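Weekend entry, working from home. Most of the wet-lab plans are on hold until the incubator is repaired, so I used the time to fold the two sequences that have been sitting in the queue since the last round of cloning. Logging both here for the record. First:
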Amino acid sequence: MVAIHDYQGREQAYVKHVFLERYLERLVHKTASRYDHVVYVDGFAGPWQSANEQFQDTSFGIALNALRQAKATWKTSRRNVKMSAHLVEQDSGAYAKLATMAARYPDVEVKTYSGGFLSVLPMILGDIPPQAFAFPRQKNKSPGGGV
């Protein structure tokens, strides 16, 4: 559980983590009811100041666990939803830790990128298949033609 006293001087991280912890899994469950592929993108993944090597108190750790839980729930309904995560980090020390995450989450396709978010964004956009859920969605790529 995210606690504000653990985020002194990092209040923006607190807001991000609270949102991810409280809403991401529900959003992914709802999205996966219509889409067979859900993609999560974190442009500032870290990790920074993680309390342990499990990284459960990081944005990507919270998000990847939410993706896994939603995937497992849908699997019990005999629905196989692909989950992908694109994680970006500019700091080389933090990226070295981030780059090891894919092996810890074999049921989620994890791609990591070293660099600034805007510089790697074209690669990420090229890696997201047109049938995957993306927000906002362009009209010409949306199933049924709508947004």
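Second, folded right after the first finished:
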Amino acid sequence: MLIEADARRFITEAIETDKDLSSIEQKEKARGRVVVGTPEYNEKRAKLITILGKINSVANPEGMGRDDLGAEVLIAAEGIFRRISPTQSKAVRNLAERIKKAFNDFKNLLRKYDQNIEVVDPQLKNNIELVEILVEFENSWSQGLTYFLDSKKCNQLIHFSQVIEATAEKHK
């Protein structure tokens, strides 16, 4: 039993961090504030993403098991999602949306696991739903790391995707 609890420690830690994050969100919304701007919220979210990276490093048999994908990727994706309209670049917005969705899917899975932690196989790689989320996390966030954090590459990606999408509209 102790061995199983130790194997699930990252999941348990992520669940507790997500609860803290939810508490901050509820508290700030009750005050009528925008939650994204608070330092405490950003700190907890960064901690949750760090734990997500740790889980990815031990449980993702299909990917490289990266644990270097930080909160800056999510922050950049959120910024791009707000700045870029679907008419400007569907591809860039789609990548930003995939990054956000991977994080939200992970949070939703944690809430499911919180209801019954015993459903989590101690061999984390045996949890199919978790592995699927981790694969999408690693794929989308790796692309975000490459294209969203380098402003020159990001601008080039936006420009070329606009050209390609406009050309595709003209020449179906």
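Plan for Monday: verify the second prediction. The chain has a mean pLDDT of 88.
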